[in-house]
Automatic annotation (TrEMBL):
CDD domains: GH20_chitobiase-like. This is beta-N-acetylhexosaminidase. The keyword rRNA-binding does not apply. It comes from the Bacteria. Residues 137-484 form the Glycoside hydrolase family 20 catalytic domain. Its EC number is 3.2.1.52. It is an enzyme of class 3 (hydrolase). InterPro entries: Beta_hexosaminidase_sua/sub (IPR025705), GH (IPR017853), Glyco_hydro_20_cat (IPR015883), Hex-like_dom2 (IPR029018), HEX_bac_N (IPR015882). Keywords: Glycosidase, Hydrolase. Belongs to the glycosyl hydrolase 20 family. Gene3D superfamilies: Chitobiase/beta-hexosaminidase domain 2-like, Glycosidases. Transmembrane segments: none annotated. It catalyses: Hydrolysis of terminal non-reducing N-acetyl-D-hexosamine residues in N-acetyl-beta-D-hexosaminides.
Amino acid sequence: MTELIPAPRSVVAGPGEVRLTEHSRLYADTATEGVGHWLRTVLRQGTGLPLREGRELEDAGGDGVGLRIDPELGPEEYRLVSNGDGILIEGGGPAGVFWGAQTLRQLLGPDAFRRAPLRRDRAWAVPYLTIEDAPRFRWRGLMLDVARHFMPKEGVLRYLDLMAAHKLNVFHFHLTDDQGWRIEIKRHPRLTEIGSWRARTKTGHRASPLWEEKPHGGYYTQDDIREIVSYAAERHITVVPEIDVPGHSQAAIAAYPELGNTDVIDTTALSVWDTWGINPNVLAPTDNTLRFYEGVFEEVLELFPSEFVHVGGDECPKDQWRRSATAQARIRELGLADEDGLQSWFIGHFDAWLTARGRRLIGWDEILEGGLAEGAAVSSWRGYAGGIAAARAGHDVVMCPEQQVYLDHRQAPGPEEPVPIGWVRTLEDVYRFEPVPPELTPEEARHVLGSQANLWTEVMEDHARVDYQAFPRLAAFAEVAWSALPAPAERDSAGFEHRMAAHYRRLDALGVAYRPPAGPLPWQRRPGVLGRPIDGPPPNR
Ligand code: TNX
């Protein structure tokens, strides 16, 4: 039963076990009451045990569970002891206790992950052991793109639960893109009235001749967002919102044509984009655009308490700025060298704006081009290079190179994989991903806050597709981000696969539609109608 994922720092097992029964009590000290509430709720669902409240730690003695703070431990560190006195989980902060509670759930076996007990008469046992554990990185993230395909709120809450089960703690919420605007902004209602729906959708990759001829869309109201942020916080997950500027903005321009480069194209003719790729229709670098987005970010800051706010900054083609008299005048007026300078001025504006409000900007590694704003952090996605350059320049970095942790890329070669993306990133590739490149000195490496896996959803139109792409690779990623693994070549991938056998049973109980080790099930395959070049060079760039 100790086939834990992610692997803890140390486990010392002894003979014997604690048996949880209907008489078992759960005690939580004041600081860990929230964790106690979470643990009681999920265990009651899966096991049927009431885990009545203990008034003091002694009530949890023998066959109960105690939760409390041990100030000697780090904030996310925990110790789980199961012995003749019962089960005691101590953490340096509530987050540490919460991760310990996740470990306890795994120790109880796969059925503890169900929503209702299979039967009432079974025993629930936890072996005698001592687990000491702490995360390697403080940023253990998952990015979910809800712009390309909208994921209704329930699905997002479910992903937060799946993240928590894997001890992931940063949810990077990609809320806007060319193909959809997904967050209600009260002062600019057309962003969702117009920007959250597209008339049709390209099927498969962008070279496909096929379309799904039906409207697609949806958005989160501000109350939905508050609920998501609060649900995440209960699970010790920080939500980092992304509003992508100045590229990836066609949905916003379709809603408010004055945001685009009106002296280059007729932006009133644009609609929410219905295909994939890098879009030439970018924001105009005008005062009107800046004021508009300051308004957007003001509402965003009210909804998301996170230290970091993501402003995108990726894939912003400069052609329209080259042809725009307005953009060229701005370049001259600001004394900039070129259009790259304009992009960096644009990002720099929001860096200063966010910093003045006590937040920090983070953006995709393109924000390094033309000079990176001081204090800004970088999501390094086009490989390690951006992250290395940023760390050397003293900027914080989240490593998420597409070569390793892009979960939209296919997980095996062959015609059965249901994605039109040529690159193969296997479970083992992800397991051998190292967030800190050897090029960095220990001093520079301190700027690597951690890592995240990214789920872009061009080809994932529902939650079953997202599950298929995310799992099992997200489990490998979680271990990379949490556990103190050795260098990639020395990692025990056979041991990991052995533990995965137990983990698949947990994912089954959770209802995750993962990719089975033997390949996709018939319903997970996709008929060969995508116009996809199989296993060739990446067709999506
Ligand atoms: C690049 S990663 C993008 C996304 C795409 C993704 C597909 C990044 C910052 N931009 O817009 O969805 O590739 O893999």
